[in-house]
Amino acid sequence: MADRRLPSRPNRFLLGVGLDSDGHVRATSGDDFVLLGGSEKTHGEMQERVEHFHETLEKMGTDLQRASEEQVEEAAHESGLVE
């Protein structure tokens, strides 16, 4: 029987959901994020914030999967994902 242990640290993933709508269905995805819904303005803002989040982690010399919880929190605050 195969060893089915969970990894010691699960993969991290960002999910953004825009709750306003202008009649269009929008979806944007990357290696570690998915953005769904929102008006053109809201969806664009979500894209900008996720891009800034990834750039902030890159400046720290890491990425979402390898970053410490503190680095993720700092990048989320700096990029406006969390206030």
Outline of the structure:
The protein has two helices and three strands. By secondary structure, the protein is an alpha+beta fold. It has a three-stranded mixed β-sheet with strand order 1-3-2, with helices on one face.
Characterise the protein shown here.
- The protein has 83 residues and is of the alpha+beta class.
- Helix content is 37%, strand content 17%.
- It has helices at 40-59, 69-79, and strands spanning 14-18, 27-30, 33-37.
- It has a three-stranded mixed β-sheet, covered by helices on one side.
- It is globular and about 45 Å long.
- The mean pLDDT is 91.
Output mean pLDDT. Answer: 91
**Overall form:** globular
Number of helices: 2
Structural Rg: 15 Å
Structural class: alpha+beta
Q: Record the strand order, biggest sheet.
A: 1-3-2
Number of strands: 3
Q: What percentage of residues falls in helices of 4 or more residues?
A: 25-40%
Distance between the termini: 46 Å
User: How can the largest sheet be summarized?
Assistant: 3 strands, mixed
**Approximately how much beta-strand content do the residues carry?**
15-25%
What are the segments in which pLDDT stays under 50 over at least 5 consecutive residues?
none
N-to-C SSE string, H for helix and E for strand: EEEHH
Task: Provide key terms for this protein.
alpha+beta, single chain, 83 residues, three-stranded mixed beta sheet
List the helices and strands and how they pair.
Layout: E1 14-18, E2 27-30, E3 33-37, H1 40-59, H2 69-79
Helix pairs in contact: 1-2
